[in-house]
Amino acid sequence: MGRLSELDAVTLDAYGTLLELDDPVRRLRDALRERGVERSSADVERAFRAENAHYAKHRLEARDGPALERLRAECARVFADALSSDIDFTAAFVAALRFHPLPGVLEGLALLRAHGVALAVVSNWDISLPDHLAGAGVWVDTVVTGAEAGVAKPDARPLLIALERLGVAPNRALHVGDSGQDER
Fold this sequence. Notes:
Elements: E1 9-12, E2 19-21, H1 24-34, H2 41-58, H3 65-82, H4 90-96, E3 99-101, H5 105-114, E4 118-123, H6 129-135, E5 142-145, H7 146-149, H8 157-166, E6 173-176
Parallel strand pairs: 1-4, 1-6, 4-5
Antiparallel strand pairs: 2-3
């Protein structure tokens, strides 16, 4: 904590650093079952991986509400197609994707905040990230998504946007992430 005084801000990645999915395979399989579609966990996991690959390629396109709705519909269609199903699954698919904070996250953020450190989430995500953070009880000073910035990390622009909003110089900030990629 001695070096914390050298920081004015910490920027954090979202998925894998702050948040994780709450068992999407079980939730998706249950949602399918409710609609009369029986699939194995292995099939649902394979379909979810196909959807996630599609999402990763297109997440930066979801810069506004209509674009986000289109992306969600596309992702649900990719998921259903991977299961060889013609079910309209968009609303159920979106509802099944729930995030929760990783262990220690809320306490760590509270500690940083108690030391006067400004907090930002900067992540390669669509514009729905603030809603997912709020739903998980993760509160920060600002959120910048790759979709909002129009470019994905490791490009520095999303980080610079967050630091500008916080009024913090780059040499007074630290970025924390789990890897070079965001999966969700």
